[in-house]
């Protein structure tokens, strides 16, 4: 990483109507002097493509530095953009590309990944973004390897994070790499956040109901969803749908993109999520009600799909308390 001076220089990019939270996170972490933790701490520049840029909620960035300063920084952070469907400002894209070519560490928070992708520095790299934008990122930039399940990731000195609060996780990781675990833990205590969160973004992505384009399959899916607590097999589905096993498999593949048993497992985990959020049932009872059999089987499949254990998921999302 480039070091132009004793103080590590961090540049945070501002774009018009940028979400205020994602912008505030790096400003708080890197812009507040903390000599009792490390001296020197960081030097922060807030950089804008235009003078007095207005961001979300009417805040105006008076006296922001230029893209020239951003291109010279040791670390460049691009918070979320206002609209992922709009091409980011070319001045910003070019400045980020220049900084990367000069050896700067580059980080994108949430949809800030779209700026990094537009600059070409995510080509061939693993990256992430808010799970709501991950599919669009992959569509617009097919050379980017998008992983929508993680809170943040790094590939070749380029960092990206999921949305909103995941920006805190990413910034703490940057501090950890600069100053070590002890200082990062002390900083996290001051921010009243965990220094590291278990699991990934998948735990915040409620599994969608997989519905077919072919509506003739819908009655069979509804019938199966009403019987998830029963030991359904491919033969059961085929028999109720008046189809052969081979035809059933083809119809599922053509309309859902899933094999029948994979669809069943997907629906069972969705139902387990609902029960964990809204009931006080034990994990054993939820495993039985969702058709996953034993608590051990539920834990294995749930953790594989959601990224955290059923207990961890319930602790975060349960809405009904006894």
Automatic annotation (TrEMBL):
Keywords: Transcription, Transcription regulation. SMART domains: HTH_ARAC. SUPFAM superfamilies: Class I glutamine amidotransferase-like, Homeodomain-like. The keyword DNA damage does not apply. The keyword Chaperone does not apply. InterPro entries: Class_I_gatase-like, DJ-1/PfpI, Homeodomain-like_sf, HTH_AraC, INH-QAR. GO terms for molecular function: DNA-binding transcription factor activity; sequence-specific DNA binding. Residues 218-316 form the HTH araC/xylS-type domain. Pfam families: DJ-1_PfpI (PF01965), HTH_18 (PF12833). This is AraC family transcriptional activator FtrA.
């Amino acid at each position: 990483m480039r070091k132009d001076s004793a103080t590590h220089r961090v540049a945070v990019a501002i774009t018009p109507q940028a979400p205020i939270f994602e912008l505030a996170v790096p400003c708080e972490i890197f812009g507040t002097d903390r000599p009792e933790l490390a001296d020197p701490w960081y030097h922060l520049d807030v950089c804008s493509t235009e003078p007095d840029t207005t961001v979300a909620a009417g805040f105006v960035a008076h006296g922001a530095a230029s893209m020239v300063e951003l291109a010279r920084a040791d670390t460049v952070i691009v918070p979320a953009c206002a609209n992922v469907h709009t091409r980011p400002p070319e001045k910003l894209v070019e400045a980020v590309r220049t900084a990367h070519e000069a050896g700067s560490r580059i980080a994108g928070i949430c949809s800030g990944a779209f700026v990094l992708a537009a600059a070409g520095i995510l080509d061939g790299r693993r990256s992430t973004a808010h799970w709501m934008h991950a599919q669009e990122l992959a569509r617009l930039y097919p050379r980017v390897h998008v992983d929508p399940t993680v809170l943040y990731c790094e590939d070749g000195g380029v960092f990206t994070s999921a949305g909103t609060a995941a920006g805190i996780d990413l910034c703490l990781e940057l501090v950890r790499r600069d100053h070590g675990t002890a200082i990062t833990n002390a900083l996290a205590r001051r921010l009243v956040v965990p220094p590291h969160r278990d699991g990934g973004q998948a735990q915040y992505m409620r599994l969608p109901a997989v519905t077919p384009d072919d509506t003739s399959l819908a009655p069979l899916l509804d019938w199966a969803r009403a019987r998830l607590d029963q030991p359904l097999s491919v033969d059961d589905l085929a028999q109720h749908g008046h189809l052969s096993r081979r035809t059933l498999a083809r119809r599922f593949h053509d309309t859902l993109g899933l094999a029948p048993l994979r669809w069943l497992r997907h629906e069972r985990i969705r139902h387990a999520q609902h029960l964990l959020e809204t009931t006080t049932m034990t994990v054993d009872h939820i495993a039985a009600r969702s058709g996953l059999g034993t608590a051990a089987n539920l834990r294995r499949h749930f953790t594989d799909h959601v990224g955290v254990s059923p207990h961890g998921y319930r602790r975060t999302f349960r809405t009904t308390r006894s």
